[in-house]
Amino acid sequence: MAIKLSKIINSWVPENSKVIDFGCGDGSLLKELFENKQVLGYGVEINDTKIEKCIEKGVPVIKLNIDKGLNDFMSSDFDLSIMARSIQCLKNPDLALNRMLKLSKRCVVTLPNLGYWRCRINLALGKMPITPDLPSSWYETENIHLCTIKDFENLCLKENINIKDKVFINRNGDQGGLSKINPNLFAVEGVYLLEK
Amino acid sequence: MKTETKLIHFSEGIELESGEKLNSFDLMVETYGELNEGKSNAILLCHAFSGNHHAAGSSEDFGIGWWDQLVGPSKTIDTNKYFVVCCNNLGGCAGSSGPSSIDPSSQKIFGKSFPQVSVLDWVNSQKMLMDKLNIECWHFVAGGSLGGMQALQWSISYPDKVKKAGIFAAASKSSSQNIAMNEVARESIRKDENFHNGNYYEHNVIPKNGIKTARMLGHITYLSEEHMDSRFGRKFQDEGSKVEESVSFEVENYLQYKGEQFSELFDANSYILMTKVMDSYDAGKDKPLVEALKDVKAEFLIVGFYSDWLYPPERGKEIQIAAMNNNIRSSFVVLQGDHGHDSFLFSSKTYSNLITNFIES
């Protein structure tokens, strides 16, 4: 995970809170949150090699297909759930979002922006976008539900989800420049703090 | 590998969960490796239903240890680094006090008068063993199946004595189907004409057929349909190696062979007692599991196997959810497992890495 992104997420995580990170990868973000914020955290991951890495770091992890198994862990009461760069891989991103907000008071979602100008140029040329942030061909990508910043915010509106805070990342990995003025066109990634 | 096998006597006896008391008892214990100066490297392995104290290495009486694939020098549980302890549980028949041992008060074989023990009694007796070995805290307590239940119970009964618990192919309680299977096994033993209401020792016979049938049924439940299909399929047994005239298929011959072998080694009363230990276990004691785990301090590694239909992964997930609701640092991983319920006994890359990483983290 890029340093910037983890820094933003760090700033939204209250100390000593209970956190669940969906699509936690090798557990780096949670490990950082243990150290910086003394959180109690659980990762959710489907890949065995990444799960081994989590355990190696001492990060508690649950092997779970988020599409199928999110309901099972509903009874746990979390302060914050995190889904970094994973929501576009889910079968039902809308349902997942609502479930996450039942599972936890707040949630952090980050997603790649299909409205980014380089994606639009690709599409204008009649091709599926391939950019540094979306490097895979259409037939091998895990991103089955890509959307633009605008699409995502419309979904939040429709589902009565409050956007408590948001940050846009430009192609240099920081928050400045044109991505502040027109994120839907110039941001490569949206980072949201959501509440219901 | 430095291995010590010894019978340890506990003259102080033990109060059992049932209210009965054993005035004294013995545990057959095997240890591997050495306890370090800080006494921080002790690991307890809890055996499953028909296991014993012999977890690793090869012995004359018990052959290859039940967890030899994972326990030994430079293995998953590295005996060069850790002091590993395993004991035959109370009520067993591999040296510890059980139905087939002599009752010191009457100088006769206990037989069915041996009191019914429980997972909690096992854990309490292992705690007494821990004290005798001068171990203050287990770095890791682990087991599969009924062994996993003991690891769970350790973390509940002695929260300050367990740093990490490995709960593999286990459940916080047996299901109705588990109990049903065990009852069929018990029935086959009880109805063997040589059972003599549990006093077969006096008649100098053993209810061999009953134990054999019980084990054959048990064996089916330990394997998966897929594993049996790939291993035996519908292949016919060749004439030359039939253990029974009547068998046609390889799978029949296999079960006959395994059942026969087991019936000569395992005590029938122990079989009945062990199945009852399994049936009666309920970590929550009729209350929700989440309440039972409220004082737990250990970290958990819970592993289930998709091919396990005896204690399917859902049972492990229940423990994980209760653990998370108690803010226990707990991980839950489901692996394919090629051997059904028995998968916990076999080493595989991910399973082995998970356990090593968990112990070392």
TrEMBL record, chain A:
Quote the Gene3D superfamilies the UniProt record gives.
Answer: Vaccinia Virus protein VP39 (3.40.50.150)
Q: What is this protein called?
A: Methionine biosynthesis protein MetW
Annotated TM spans: none
A Pfam family matched in the record: MetW
Superkingdom assignment: Bacteria
Starting at the broadest rank, the lineage of the source organism is: Bacteria, Pseudomonadati, Pseudomonadota, Gammaproteobacteria, SAR86 cluster
Extract the InterPro entries matched here.
Answer: Methionine_synth_MetW, SAM-dependent_MTases_sf
UniProtKB/TrEMBL annotation, chain B:
Q: Tell me a GO biological process for this protein.
A: homoserine metabolic process
* Pfam families recorded: Abhydrolase_1 (PF00561)
Q: Name one GO molecular function term.
A: homoserine O-acetyltransferase activity
**Major localisation:** cytoplasm
Give the GO cellular component terms, alphabetically: cytoplasm
Give the catalytic activity.
Answer: L-homoserine + acetyl-CoA = O-acetyl-L-homoserine + CoA
Pathway noted in the entry? Amino-acid biosynthesis; L-methionine biosynthesis via de novo pathway; O-acetyl-L-homoserine from L-homoserine: step 1/1
For this protein, what is the EC number? 2.3.1.31
Give the top-level enzyme category: transferase
Question: Which positions in this protein are listed as binding substrate?
Answer: 215, 342
Q: What does this protein do?
A: Transfers an acetyl group from acetyl-CoA to L-homoserine, forming acetyl-L-homoserine.
Share what the entry says about its subunit structure, partners included: Homodimer.
The protein's name is Homoserine O-acetyltransferase
